[in-house]
Design brief:
Low-confidence stretches: none
Structural class: alpha+beta
GO molecular function: cytidine deaminase activity; identical protein binding; zinc ion binding
CATH class: Alpha Beta
Mean pLDDT: 97
Number of helices: 5
Helix content: 25-40%
Binding site for substrate: 44-50
InterPro entries: APOBEC/CMP_deaminase_Zn-bd, CMP_dCMP_dom, Cyt/Deoxycyt_deaminase, Cyt_deam_tetra, Cytidine_deaminase-like
Shape: globular
Strand content: 15-25%
CATH topology: Cytidine Deaminase, domain 2
Family: Belongs to the cytidine and deoxycytidylate deaminase family.
Number of domains: 1
Domain CMP/dCMP-type deaminase: 3-125
Strand order of the largest sheet: 2-1-3-4-5
Radius of gyration: 14 Å
Bound molecules: tetrahydrodeoxyuridine
């Protein structure tokens, strides 16, 4: 599938503008292309109990599932200045579940796969192998 990275970044930027980040003052927006062609987005949602903060990727995954599911194909994450951000470690694991090792990510060093960002990942395949 053709990936329009510019459009994905615009969608991530629009989502970033919806962020609720009064504590860090670090709004984050994410957007991803799904294998059926739709785009899902998310923004970070912080909490007075800091540790309960939801990263933007949490919102994206919730939106993915709530809008019909599917596999993530391409992902981008931006900050308030339009810089590309790398997903935090926990969010790499979220992306692993719904995009897998082949998920493509925009980075300052070009397009990378999730396998490069999260090598030797633990994912649904491991569970399948061990639960039958
Ligand atoms: N944040 C995200 O939304 N996603 C990431 O992958 C990195 C961090 C948010 C969480 C928090 O609201 C703010 O960025 C500062 O850490």
């Amino acid at each position: 599938m053709q990936i329009n990275w510019e459009h994905l970044k615009e969608q991530a930027t629009a989502a970033m503008k919806q962020a609720y980040a009064p504590y860090s003052k670090f709004p984050v927006g994410v957007a991803a292309l799904v294998d059926d062609g739709r785009i899902v987005t998310g923004c970070n949602v912080e909490n007075a109990s800091y540790g309960l903060t939801l990263c933007a990727e949490c919102g994206l995954v919730s939106s993915l599932i709530n809008s019909g599911g599917g596999r993530l194909i391409a992902f981008t994450c931006v900050d308030i200045s339009g810089n590309l951000l790398m997903p935090c470690g926990r969010c790499r694991q979220l992306l692993q579940e719904h995009g897998g090792s082949k998920l493509q990510l925009a980075t300052d060093d070009g397009i990378k796969t999730l396998a490069e960002l999260l090598p030797w990942a633990f994912g649904p395949e491991e569970m399948e192998k061990r639960l039958d």
